[in-house]
Each structure stands twice: as C-alpha cells, then as structure tokens.
Amino acid sequence: MTEPMTGTAAWVLERCDELTRHTARDDALERVYLSPEHAAANTAVAAWMRDAGLATATDAAGNLWGRRSAAGTPQQPGTRGEPALVLGSHLDTVPDAGRYDGMLGVALAIAVVHRLRGTALPFALEVAGFSDEEGARFGKALLGSCAASGQWDAAWWDQADADGVTLRDAFTAFGLDPGRVGAAARRPQDLVGYLEAHIEQGPELEALGLPLGYVTTIAGARRFVLTVTGEARHAGGTPYARRRDALVAAAHLVTRIEELAVDAGGLATVGELRVSPGAVNVIPGRAELTLDLRARTDAARDALWGRVAAAARDIARERHVSIEHAETHRAPSTTCDERMTAAVVAGIAAASPEFAGRADDVPGLWSPAGHDAMAMAAVTGVGMLFVRCRDGISHHADESVEAADVAAALDAYTAAVLALADK
Ligand code: HGY
Ligand code: MN
Ligand code: MN
Ligand code: MN
C-alpha cells in the first residue's frame, strides 16, 4: 500500500495506527510512562519529526520535543533567544486505550510542520510529545507537562505503580536522572504560546453536527486512593454481627459517591477496586479504590469532595471499618488564553466550510477531560482545538474519528498557526 503524502489527514491517521504497535499488551493498547513502549514510541515519533524538518530531543522528564527555527531550519529544542509556539499533546495512554487520545494531537502537529515547510514565521515552532498526561501508572497525571512547565513536586517521587515501583526508581530505570528533572522546565520568555488539538472525548460536537470546536475551560480533576480496612475472617464461621467486611463497606461508599455526584452536578468515577486477601471463602479485610472527581468549577469539585469525605466517615462508623484517603492528583481548572483561542477560532472559521469564515458560529466547549494544556497554562497562553469523535467514545479501543474531520482539523490547525504569525 502506498504511504500517504506527508502533511495530509491520511498520513495523520496512518501515524495513529502505527503508534498502536508500541503497546505493553498484544490484546489492547497500553503505553504508560517510562515503559519500554514509551521509549519505542518516542523513537518512532522522533523519526517522523526529523522527517518533517525538526531537530529532536528527549527532555529530562522523558518528553519528546521537535523544533524548527522561525526561518524554518532544524533547531535544537529548548533553544533560547527565539521564542517558540508549541504544538503538543501526549503519547501515553490509559489501559485498553483508543488510538487518538493524545496521539492525534501529536500527529496533527507534525503534519502542520510539514504543511509549513519553507514558510518563515515570526517565531520558532516546537512539537511536544508529552510523556505522561494520563497518570495511569503512578496516579499523578500531567507529569510530563508539569515537568515542562516547572511544576514538578518532589513529593511525587515516592508514588508507586501497581508493582510497587516508585516514580523515582522508574525514572532511573528509564535512563533519566531524578536530580535533573528541573532541567525540563521551559521559561515563559521562551514561549509564544501552546496549542493542542485533541478529540473531544464527549458527545457535544456530534450533537451539534459539527466537526470542530474550541475549548473555553478545562476541568481540573482531583484524584484519591481510598483505603477501607475491616477484618479478614472466615466466610463460614463469622456471623454478620461479627463482620467488618471491607468490600461491602466500599460498595456502600461507591454507590453513595455516585448519588452525591449526581446531586451536585459533578462527575465522580471509581475506576479501580483492589480487594484483599481475595479468596472466595475469606471476608475481605481490605479494599482500595481510586476516585476521580471533576466539576464545572474547582469550588464545586471541592464541595463534592467534602461531601464524599463526610459520607466515608459515616459509612466507616456504621460498618465498623476505617476509611482513609490519600490525594494523588489535583489540577486547577484552566481557562484558555484569549489570543491563542482567537487564533484557533479564526483557523476553524477559515478552514471549515461549515463556518465559511463566520467565527461567531464556531462552538466553544467546556472540556470535562483534562489535557496537557492545563499544565502548560502555568508558563504560557494555551488554546485548544477539539475534533469530533464518534459517540464521544474515548479511553476505549472503539475511539474513532472521521478522515474528513481530521482533514478539517489539519487545515484549521495550520490556519491557526498562520493567524498567530499574522500571515
Ligand atoms: O482523564 C482525563 O481527563 C484525561 O484523559 N487524562
Ligand atoms: Mn485520556
Ligand atoms: Mn488526552
Ligand atoms: Mn478452612
């Protein structure tokens, strides 16, 4: 089969297909931070970047960068003295992932660079392939972009994965020096702004019958590990009056969390539940569950957490167990930058026949899904371009996009960069 022309939607889709090869499992797509698959994906994407005329480098946190100068020549990422517009997204995935969450944004960014070859710009252009947006391995999300925006917290080093490997040990095993993670931080004065193209991961654009939209604000999630401790006892010999069943208590908590979230108009997800000792004839003595909380505002999210914590205290008392929590991630809700967003809107309006230049018709969406743009907002203005995805499905192998929408996104993304270059 002939390779699609670089800088086309077909080429972008082909890259997303190719990246599915770098996975920890042969039955699903899973590529987590500091894994062999992460290294392999960085190698593959770096080759695509160089082919697009970028010089490439991996930074001190495992993020992949490609850069061209304002004049259009390959230039070492992070070069100072010539501020850069960064086009980025992430290369890591959740377990059983779809192939477009993150990867579409990186492939689109490289395609834009292909489109702009030979075009001088008033700023350098960098493409970022962030290394850990999902937080799937260590619990803390946005690790790659937090390092790139100078927000790394030494408290994260001891967070461990399901096998007990700490972030610090995984860093070293990957060939990175924990002591140098600060070197990944980009300076505000070296950045013009940050743009990210991403699938919507929701149903709004499909409901509107539109291929593209821009992002107004991005929800900041708070994530916790809740540990329920009861008492492991014999399944036959222990009467109910003597039981302190950690799993039954956790089950009450899970359904109560959903009731509280629905009442509050927030979003709560218990994504993982580990029970021990885990035998059919032993009453569970311990249940550990993860909790992801989001809402339209940080205040609403925090109020929801307060009610969840109170419910946990009530259930602990009623069921004679203890319920402790540890917060593993917290990100502030982010409002996208006016100038970056105006460029995204202008790009969409100019590039999509649905809008025929009418910027006012371009839909602005709240993003309940988190993105690397949230971290990059700490050092530069951010703008996001959303691409319709079928039925809003994401974090699932059935994630899918229309080639025509990807073509519209590529045109719009390129036009947005040129709008910032005032071309
Ligand atoms: O969880 C999220 O919202 C994003 O996909 N990391
Ligand atoms: Mn995701
Ligand atoms: Mn994503
Ligand atoms: Mn026995």
From TrEMBL:
Keywords from the named record: Hydrolase, Manganese, Metal-binding, Zinc
Amino acids binding Zn(2+) 1: H90, D101, H198
Pfam families: M20_dimer, Peptidase_M20
Positions contributing to allantoate binding: R223, N281, R294
The protein's required cofactors: Mn(2+); Zn(2+)
Gene Ontology MF terms: hydrolase activity, acting on carbon-nitrogen (but not peptide) bonds, in linear amidines; metal ion binding
Limits of the Peptidase M20 dimerisation domain: 220-318
Gene3D superfamilies: 3.30.70.360, Zn peptidases
Co-factor: note: Binds 2 Zn(2+) ions per subunit.
Residues that hold Zn(2+) 2 according to the record: D101, E134, H395
UniProt-listed NCBIfam families: hydantase (TIGR01879)
Stated family: Belongs to the peptidase M20 family.
Subunit structure: Homodimer.
Protein name in UniProt: Allantoate deiminase
Organism field: Promicromonospora thailandica
